[in-house]
Amino acid sequence: MRLLTTTAIATLIALPAFAADKELTVFDWAGFEEPSIFQAYIDKHGDSPTYAFYGDDDEAFQKVASGFKADVAHPCSQMVSKYRDAGLIEPWDTAKIPNFDKIDPRFLDSPVFKDDGGVWFIPTDWGAAAIAYNTETVPAEDVATLQVFTNPKYQGRTSLPDSSDDVWALAYLATGTTDWTDVTDEQFQAAADWLRQAHQNVAAYWADPSEQAQLMASGAVDVTWSWNDVLSLLQAEGYPVGFQREATEGSSTFFCGYVNLKGGPGSEDKAYDFINAWLEPSAAKGLLDTIGYGHTSTEAMATIADEPAVAMGLAQIDAPVLAQTPNDPAQREKQLAEFEKIKAGF
Questions:
Q1: For 20, phi and psi rounded to 5 degrees?
Q2: In terms of domains, do 220 and 328 share one?
Q3: HSE-up (13 A, CA, CB side) for residue 103
Q4: What's the number of CA atoms in the CB half-sphere (13 Å) around residue 73?
Q5: How far is Cα 265 from Cα 276, in angstroms, rounded to an integer?
Q6: What confidence score (pLDDT) does residue 9 get?
């Protein structure tokens, strides 16, 4: 097995903050501070924004709700309603966003994102959650099904994200539910029972892609439920990683974007410059190369359509797909509470 070098692993560990342009603070997932994604902002202002980082959506929301000040934040779609309901965000003025109409309409197809009150969310990036595995130690037939996560053969050899949304997407798929916007009590219970089984095989719950990459690179785990970014990180180092999106039960997709936080301490004009830089077609290549994700702009996606990473991690598949779109906030809180119990062994 080939391992990441010590230097390469060190580069995957995100700093807690990245200080640059003090007039714009971006609250974001670690890794998205990559300049090639928003180069037009740097070209205009001479520096990157100041970044503060978080590891998961719920952590980010709680921090903002507790008074943390930033100008923009980067939640995934199912979190936007929480920010709206808590009164933490304000609408974007799309007249100041020239490429807004290039965003694929399917990413705005919800009154949570766009209603008579305005546009509350600018979707920018999307990806897949699927099985990442060591191709040298895991036969392809084993990952042809999501039941690999409950297979006794892999006890102590799997990893799951410490993210309620992602693990429930996996559990629903594994138990035959492909739409989480209308889940019955029976479907919820079946998924919870499956997650408890899967928990028995888990060596560790990963908190961010760098931790997940290290778990796989060190040989600690062979199979993990993964986002695209880990695929990009490990492939760049020559690690033998596969990404199975066409398991019998399917895989998941998600998309994220930026919200305009109320009372941001920085420049509103620079917040728009940042969004406009993200929506430049040239941003798609930087996003794909560094994170492995697709762009929400149809014009931007057209510039990377022939890239191998698109074919492997973002192309249409012949398998069920659970789209992580906005779902019932009460159901989401129920899932979060149950996941905490499962991780604690109850």
A1: -150, -110
A2: yes
A3: 26
A4: 32
A5: 20
A6: 34
58 and 28 both lie in a single domain:
yes
Domain co-membership, 298 together with 174: no
Exposure pattern of 61-75 as b/e (b: 16+ CB <10 Å)?
Answer: beebeeeeebbbbbb
Q: Quote the pLDDT of residue 3.
A: 33
pLDDT of residue 169: 97
**pLDDT value, residue 19:** 62
User: What percent of the chain clears pLDDT 70, i.e. is strictly above it?
Assistant: 95
Q: Is residue 13 part of a domain?
A: no
Q: What CATH number corresponds to the domain at position 35?
A: 3.40.190.10
CA angle (88, 92, 96) in 5-degree steps? 150
Regions of the chain short of the pLDDT cut 70: 1-19
Residue 186 Cα distances to 115, 304, 324, angstroms: 33, 42, 20
What is the model's pLDDT at position 46?
95
In-domain check, residue 334 = yes
Are 117 and 177 found together in one domain? no
Residue 262 phi/psi, 5-degree rounding, is -70, 145
Number of domains comprising the chain: 2
pTM confidence score: 0.89
According to the model, what pLDDT value does residue 210 have?
A: 85
In this structure, the chain runs to a length of 346
Residues 336, 283, single domain; the answer is: no
